[in-house]
Each structure stands twice: as structure tokens, then as C-alpha cells.
């Protein structure tokens, strides 16, 4: 039960308390096709480095939008600065510079024409911070207030009277609680700029001497709700009275039907019992607030909740948010034994009279939108794909916009901190989903299905094990993964790095890419997915192939063809190989394929398709994503009727895929790895999302029409 003094409950809260729904903890996810149509679409993705240089490790963690709705201001902690984007035209944001903060900014908000940046100035083992007040128009620092500790989150009251700053004084993450000094809530009177301290010690059952407040949100009554994350506690504070008026444990939850093992499989058969340990919080009315239950010290329930001001759970997402991640191909299996998708933050906004909650998944790289017109039964609306590590989320109803800032910055992998902007309307995502909780991701090849002109097959690569062949219905909108077939050898499931797939009468051929200790193989499967034959490369070719080996397979008559991704060690660096294996004679013959030169990185082949017995198509791509991507093309070539040696084919451009990959205004995907022509003549392509391993995780399924 909640403790502390509480204000009188409103009639609305009384009504809601009678409609508490805890069954959602174990409720099944809403089936695909039952969702409302998307209401928001992505307008732009802006790397933070555009405000400095491409070699700068710039991040974008927490954002605000100025009062006029025309400027995004984000915190760049590595650069110890604020970054600015002009969003007068939200579809074409314009980077407009940075402002040094003299420390690490952890949060930013706005009050009228002022920006309020919470800045960590701690020098280990000390705890120090300041609130920097900046004129949003001139970017001049008006004042700097000593906060007395290390800040995390800053919020402004709707009344404009108060500013609240969560002073976390965060612990050494390698050690347990308590780790003094204790955190507290700093309250700034915006009329006098005086800073007051609200003590939060003695509230939580977990380390009561060391509260570590994480996030703060303020309602129209000048009441702040504070998440004390690692203590698994929540407090409601009267900013006028400068005291706690109610507090309560965030509680624990038992969730079934989730993946709990990091084992290269997505298996929704586990159960967790965990403390919620909420991170982001947001009022959705004066009596109700939402929490993102990320977990930190020893918890994380993989969902989000709605509480009333007295600590009663009005609704809990249970396993449904993780199931939505699986359905959209955005489940991070490598986090299964930790905190799963890690709901990080929440925001509230009312668009067209409809109240929405937006929930960031830090590890799933998405923001989920919910209609909370009935807070006891929120309705999932859509998933918005983001770049890596979405932290901040801001609703801007006056402009019809959502702004998400993502902090993950790994330049060597073309993962960059960025700001994404979404507006009202319908977008292209998702272009492919699964039904009946079929787990998927890392789609490394596509194939037509003999005798079934409207169906496709795809295969998963080494991100997952065992290898599975998936059935895709492209007539559905979005395209739907409807069935799966596990590949077996000697009656046991087997995992290959399957990078090529072609369905033939009576079975399949896989193109399996080798590694430093594994060979490249052509693998023949029967119709049940059982291995019938493994065919290695000739020894002289096997010795010359690099770790970038087989990346496509095609079949024409009695011949099976393969594309080798990158040049052999013995070949010129501008040529790679197309191989033909005769199933009649058991012999190999080879053609050379000329590669385009990429301005950055390397270029290779990632798919091979037989258009007819003499004509083939390939996907040729560079290894870059985001703004650096330059080569994502479909080429075709004809093979000679006979040849000796290794002649070079003459290629012709069929389609540049880069405009299609840019069309939805996201982070351009690196690995276009699937291409096929269905029996009805339609051409399709798909990207490999790497299972969210150093990738955004977004999959793009392209409908290219009668292309080949």
C-alpha cells in the first residue's frame, strides 16, 4: 500500500481504480491485422555529427522543442554541449550549431523563451551539477544555478512556476546500493530562481538511505512524479509545499511468454518475476501517469505501466510490448538474458483530441504509440522505427510532431547518434511483419516458390540458429511471414550461415557462407528441410575465398549457380566470381563479375537470381549504411553458351535501390540481401537487419513491380 500523505482522490481516479486491469500481465499480444492503421510517419533522420563533423563522436540523448515549435534542442553528453536543429520544415531539418555547457548535459527542457539544461560537472568521486539557463533565441547563458549534486532529468511545470531536477548522484554501476551521497529532487522557483531541496531518503524499502531519482514529470497541479529507479520506488512531490505527498513501491510483476535465454533463438516460452524499476515517467492526467519499466540494478519487467497517484496499477503491458517487437522483427535476442527490449522512456501528447503515450525501447530501437483514451485498456496504434538506443521522446502537438533522440554512437559500424522526426500521416513501416509470434530477422535471401506464384521464401542467416526457411505472403499489406521450416541434418536441427536460398521442385538449395574455420557449401534440402547433400568448393577455389564467400544461389535446369560476395585472394580486387555447379557432372565453372568502386568501404554481391537460363540478376552493394551508403543496385548480365577459363561478364543496370531505401526517411539500411522474381512476375527485395546486432534492426521489404 502507498505511504505518506495523499491529496483527495478525484471522481475520475475513483472510477479508474474500479477498472484496474492486471490480466494484461499475461495477456496474449493483439494479433496482426487487428491494429489500427498507423497515424504517424517518419519525416527525417538527422545524425548529430552534422552539427560538427563526421569524425566527431556526437550523440543525441534527450531533446526538447522550443516554445515556437521550430527548433529541436538535444543534449550531446560526449561533446559536453547542446545541439540545435531548425525544424521550420520538419521534413528537411537544418543543423544550426552547438553550445558548450562546461560539463555533460543530461537533460534539457524549455520555459517560454528559455532553455534549461541540467549539466553534470562531477569529478569523481565528487557529485556536482548545475542548471544552465539559456536564451533560446540568442543562445546566451542567462544564469547558472548550483544544484549541489549530479542531475539526471529536468522538467518544467505546465504553470511555468516551477522547474524540477532529479538529482541522481548515481552509483558506481559495478557496485550495489547504497552508495552515498543520496539523491534528491531540486526544485527551482522560476520567479526567484531559488533552489530548494526535497529529501527523498527513508521512502523506499530498497536502500532507503540512498535514493537515486532518475526521471521527473510535472502535472497541472504543480505536482512532480519522480521515478527512483534503482530503489524501485515512485514519489509524488508538491512543488509548492516542497515535500513528498505520496510515495509507493513500483512493485514487481510476473511475466510469461518471453525469451529469457541468449541462445541465438527467439523462444517465447520463459517466465520472469522482476521489479519494474521504472526509468521514464510521464503524467497522462493529473491523477494518472505512465512508466517505462526499463530495470537497472536488478529488475526490468520489459513493459510499461499506468499508475494512479496513490500507487495503484491501472494497467500493465505484461509481455505484449516484447511480442510486438518480435512481430516487427525488432526483438534483440542478445538481451534476452538481461532486460529484453528495455523500455527506456515515455511521453504523452494529445493529437487531434486523442491522448497518446509514446514508449521508447532502448534495445529494440523503436517507439511504440498507444491510444490511452481508456487508460485501463490502452490500444496499440503502431511502432515507429528509430536509430540505435532511443532515449528521448517528445510530443509536439502544436506541430503534429514526435521527436525521438537516439544516443548510440559507434562510428566504425555506421551507427550514429541522431534525431528522428515523425509527423501525422501514414508511412511505409512496417513493410513486413510476422503472424502467430513467428520470430524472425536477418532475412538473408529471397526465393520464388515453384507452383505458387504469389508466395515467397526467405532464410535466416547465422544470427539465429538453427537455420529456418520462412514463408512470406507478399499480397498482405504489410507482407506477412506466415510459416517457418527448420533445417535439419541427420534428424537434428542445424545452424548454417545461410546467405542464399532458391526453392526448386522437391526442395531447396542453400548457399552457405564459410568463415575462418568453416567451408562455403552448396546444400541440397528436401521439401521438409532435411539436408540431402553438402557440396564444397574445389580445393583451389576454397583456398582463395575470403570470409566474404557465398552470398547468393540460383537454379537453372540442372545447374546451380552461386555468387561470391567479394574477390578471391588470387583475383583482381575489381572482380568477384559467379560459379556454376553442374548437378549432372559434379563439376564447377566460373565467370568473373566486375564490381563498382565505392567511395567509402567495399563493394560486393549479396544475391543472385535466375531470370531465365541465360540471364541472371544480382544485388551489388557497398558495406555502408546511413548517409554514407552509395551503392545499392540491381544489375543483370547474360552468360555465354559455352566458355573456357574465367571470362568477365558484361553487366547492365536494372534498378538503383538507393532512392527506395531513402524514401521512408530513415537510416539507410546496409544489407540489401534478398531479391527474387515471383511466379506472377513481380520483383521483390528485402534487407537483412543483422538481428539488431550493431544495426538499427529495421527491415525494408521492397515491391519493385515487373522489374526483370
Describe the structure.
This protein has 708 residues and is mostly beta strands. It has 2 domains: 11-427, Methylamine Dehydrogenase, Chain H (7 Propeller), CATH 2.130.10; 433-705, 6 Propeller (Neuraminidase), CATH 2.120.10. Helices cover 3% and strands 45% of the residues. The longest helix is centred in the middle third of the chain and has 8 residues, at 320-327.
What is the structure about, briefly put?
The protein is mainly beta and 708 residues long. Helix content is 3%, strand content 45%.
Produce the secondary structure layout.
Layout lengths: L10 H7 L22 E8 L15 E3 L5 E6 L4 E6 L7 E7 L3 E8 L2 E7 L8 E7 L5 E6 L4 E6 L5 E6 L16 E6 L5 E5 L13 E6 L4 E6 L4 E6 L4 E7 L2 E7 L11 E6 L5 E3 L4 E5 L11 E5 L4 E4 L3 H8 L15 E9 L2 E8 L4 E6 L7 E7 L4 E7 L4 E6 L11 E7 L7 E3 L8 E6 L7 E5 L7 E6 L5 E8 L1 E2 L2 E2 L4 E7 L2 E6 L8 E6 L4 E6 L2 H4 L7 E7 L2 E6 L10 E8 L5 E7 L8 E8 L4 E8 L9 E7 L12 E6 L1 H5 L9 E6 L5 E5 L13 E5 L3
Parallel strand pairs: 31-35
Antiparallel strand pairs: 1-30, 2-3, 3-4, 4-5, 6-7, 7-8, 8-9, 10-11, 11-12, 12-13, 14-15, 15-16, 16-17, 18-19, 20-21, 21-22, 22-23, 24-25, 25-26, 26-27, 28-29, 29-30, 32-33, 33-34, 34-35, 36-37, 38-39, 39-40, 40-41, 42-43, 43-44, 44-45, 46-47, 47-48, 48-49, 50-51, 51-52
Distinctive features:
4-stranded antiparallel beta sheet, Neuraminidase, 2 domains, 5-stranded mixed beta sheet, disordered N terminus, mainly beta, Methylamine Dehydrogenase, Chain H, 708 residues
